Amino acid sequence: MTGWIRLRQLAIITGDLEAAVAPLLDVFGLSEGFRDPHLLPHFGLVNCVVPVGDQFIEICATAREGTQGERFLKRRGEGGYMVILQADPHAAFRARMDDLKIRVIAEQAKPAYHMVQLHPRDTGGPMLEVDWHEGGDTPERPWSHAVGHDWRKGIRTGRVQAIAGAEIQSEDPAGLAARWSEILGRPSRAGKDGAHHIAIDESELRFVPVTDGRGEGLGGIDIRSSQKGQVLAAARKRDLPVKGNTINLLGIRFNLV
Q1: Inter-helix orientation angle 17-28/228-237, to 10°
Q2: How many CA atoms within 13 Å lie on the side-chain side of 26?
Q3: How many domains does the chain have?
């Protein structure tokens, strides 16, 4: 796909929002950006959106039974839920989905943004959403759909500065990488680390084997940090599992890079 495509937001699902938010903010030195009041009536979820530079980690928690989020949580447990990318031109991407016969499960087209969520049975891996936002290629990189308009007040970059990548696990990482490569129009390459990589603007999607017994999905997040020692010390203070520069938190491997 010509133009640019960047990693903008990653969603984690849990059963207890406040118990999940507190360690994330404490370990990484982050602050809340937004809570969406519309998620509860429409999707049975409550959330907290946390800026990481001008990207986001969104924590969603199930708030009632019988919802898609609750079924996902029962099936896979706490952990990665959704990968949200930002692309321009978006019209070319949307036409590509029709050509590939990929089902769209949710779509909103407004003058300032266009959101498309794809059916995970057609994409494989975690739920994939690709959005466009007016002015997204400017230095301000506006992004207000589902994160409010005042999220920049929550930016804290003392310990961590950006999301550098999403680690997607699969029993067939090469096959899943090839599928996402087809969807995104970006090449997949096999790395010396045994993973398969898709480079996108300023970050990457990395496809790895399942090692935690939890099946296919978003298994890890790469976090760019200028203060790894502080982050690791905060994680150990909370008795979180730490191995090298990787912290296990909320069913996610947070890899400090």
Answers
A1: 140
A2: 15
A3: 1
Give the pair of three-digit tokens for residue 93.
Answer: 């991407």
pLDDT of residue 2: 65
Q: In sequence order, what DSSP letters do the residues of 124-151 get, joined into one string?
A: -SSEEEEEEETTTTSTT----TTT-S-G
Sheet of 242-243, strands arranged across:
188-190, 196-200, 203-209, 160-170, 217-225, 252-256, 246-249, 242-243
- The answer to whether the beta carbons of residues 117 and 109 sit under 8 Å apart is no
Residues 85 and 35: their CA atoms lie apart, in Å, by 20
**Comparing 142 with 235, which gets the higher pLDDT?**
235
The Cα–Cα gap between 89 and 183 comes to 14
- Which residues have C-beta within 8 Å of that of residue 243, sequence separation ≥ 6? none
CATH number at residue 196: 3.10.180.10
Question: pLDDT tens for residues 47-101?
Answer: 999 999 999 999 999 999 888 889 999 999 999 999 999 999 999 999 999 999 9
Q: 3-state class of 15 per DSSP?
A: coil
C-alpha dihedral sign at 155, 158, 161, 165: negative
Cα–Cα dist 135/142, whole Å: 6
Domain that holds residue 55: 4-256
